[in-house]
Specification:
The chain is mainly α. It is built from seven helices and no strands.
Amino acid sequence: MDKNGIPLRGEMSSLLEGKEKYGPFTREILFRAAYETDFGLLDHNDPRNQKPMALVKHLPKEDEFSYGPMARAIQRFITYKIADYTNMDIVSFFQMPRCYVDMVFAAAAQEIATNAKEAERIRKALESQQNATGAQQ
């Protein structure tokens, strides 16, 4: 654990426990490699990743625009068809207070779940009706 009580993982833990004294640049490189390995961004222990520019390469998992909270919120806005429910454009919607945005997302998710259950009920009713009709012939 670090001084804040956060459990450290393999590579970082071994670096912090080590008694070797490294200069600032070496320490930076070692900790970045350990961070990327420990958090699953890029395994620097794998021989296939032993490339000179591996430490400065932009990794897809680091892309805040694709994986960050705003990207997930925009995806929910589109998936839940919030514009259809609220008649609001995406900018207006996200200008609302966070608690309202969360309430609308929750209501839309509930509506989608209810509609899915109803669609499944109708599908089963039609299927059983077709089976009954087929059995009579």
